[in-house]
Design a protein that fits this description.
Elements: H1 13-32, E1 36-37, E2 43-45, H2 46-54, H3 58-62, E3 66-68, E4 74-77, H4 82-91, H5 94-97, E5 101-110, E6 122-131, H6 136-153, E7 158-163, H7 170-182, H8 190-198, H9 209-215, H10 227-242, E8 248-249, E9 261-268, E10 277-283, H11 287-290, E11 298-304, H12 305-309, E12 321-326, H13 332-343, E13 347-350, H14 357-366, E14 371-375, H15 377-381, E15 384-389, E16 395-399, H16 400-403
Parallel strand pairs: 1-5, 7-8, 12-13, 12-14
Antiparallel strand pairs: 2-4, 3-4, 5-6, 6-11, 7-9, 9-10, 10-11, 14-15, 15-16
Helix pairs in contact: 1-6, 6-10
Bound molecules: histidyl-adenosine monophosphate (HAM).
Amino acid sequence: MVSSLRGMNDLFGSDAEKYSYFLDVASSVAKRYGYEFIRTPLLEETGLFLRSVGESSDIVGKEMYRFSDKGGNDVCLRPEGTAGVVRSFIEQKLDRKGGIHRFCYSGTMYRYERPQKGRLREFSQFGCESFGEESVYEDASVILLVAQIFSTLGIAYTLKLNSLGCKECMPSYKDLLVEFVKSHTEAICDDCKRRVDTNPIRVLDCKNESCQAIYKDAPKLLDHLCSGCKNDFAKLKDLLNQSDLGFEIDSHLVRGLDYYTKSAFEFVSSGIGSQNAIAGGGRYDTLVEYLGGKSTPAIGFAIGIERILDLIVPQETKGKLFYIGSLDEDSLDASFAAALQKRASVQTFFEPKPRSLKNHLKTADKIGASHCCVIGSNELADDSIWVKDLLSKEEQTIKIKDFNGLF
Ligand code: HAM
C-alpha cells in the first residue's frame, strides 16, 4: 500500500466540513473588510523566497522543498503566501497604479519541518495582504479582521503584539543587541551564535531556556523606537483598546520571516499543544520595493487552518435534506427528474435502486434526511410524488409540478 508522505495529510469527514465552514466564514469577513480573492501558483522561482522570507531564516535555510525543474530552473514549493502575492502585485503593475489594493487567499504551503501535532509539512493558510495604506488604522483593521474571524468561529485566543521598528530605528537597535549578545557569547546556544551574525533580532525568540534567561535583560526595541514608530505603536494600542480587543505586549516577538517592519502580531491559543500560534502577521513596508516594485506600504496576516480545526465547533447548519427514491424500475426516471429539480434549491440525495417504502424510509433516516420522497406506479400514473416530513411525520402526495415549490 502507498501511504501519504510524512507531515502531509488527507482532509476528509468532519475536518473537511470544518475546513470549508472556516473558509466561508473567513472569506465573508475579509470581503466585508474590502479584500478580493487572489490565487497565486504553488511553485515559484526560489529567488523570490530567498529575497523576501530571507536567506537567514529557518524557512529558507532549512525547510524549503527546492529543486531544479526539467528546464533547469531553480524553483520551490511556496513556504508561505505573502511573497507570491507581492510578486503578483508588482507584476500586475498595481504598485505604479497607486491606491489601495487588498487581497485574500487560501491554499497549501510547504515547509520541510519535523512533523508533530500542529506542525505539518503541507499545511493550509488563509491570508490577507493589504497594499498602499500606511495609516496605523490599517494595522488596527487587519488585527480586528483576524479577531472577528476567530470570534465568529467561537475560538478563544491571546493576541501578542510588538513593533519591529523601521529602517530608521531598527539598525541602531540591532547594533545595541549585537553588542549585548556578543558580551554573552560563551553562554548562548550555537544557533544564537550563528544568528548574531546573520539576523541578530532572531536570537530573541530562541526556544532555548538558558538563552531566554540571558535575553530577558537584553535592550528592548520598544525602548529604542524612533518617534514615528513610537507614535504609531501607541495609536495602535489605543485603537485596539477602544475596540475592546485585549492584547499582550511581547517585546521578544520577532516573527520567523525577515520582511517585517513596525507592527508584528501573533494570535496564540491555549490547549492545542506547543505549536500554539494560530495566526501571525505584520507590516512589511519595504518588501514591495525590495522585490523590484515601487515603494508601497503593506500589511497582512495568515491563519494556519489545520491548527484551528480542533477548535472549531461548526454551527448547527443542519438544513433540509431531501431523500428521493422509487418503488420500481419504471418510476426511476421520474424520481431522478424530481431529484434534479429539487437540487436546484435544496440538498438532495437520489437513490438509484428501486426499493420497498420501508427500506427507503430506513435509509432516509440513516442519512439524516428531513424529507423522504418516493415515486411508485400510482404516483407515476398521475404525475405525483409521495412526501413524508421526517420531523413532523406528516405525509402527503402532491403533484410533481408543485413539488419544487414545497418548502
Ligand atoms: P507564519 O507565522 O510563518 O506567517 O505562518 C502563519 C501561520 O501558519 C502560523 O501562525 C501557523 O498557524 C501556520 N503554520 C506555520 N507553519 C506551519 C506548519 N508547519 N504546520 C501547520 N501550520 C503552520 C506567514 O506565513 C506570513 N506569510 C504571514 C503574513 C502574511 N505576514 C504578512 N502577511
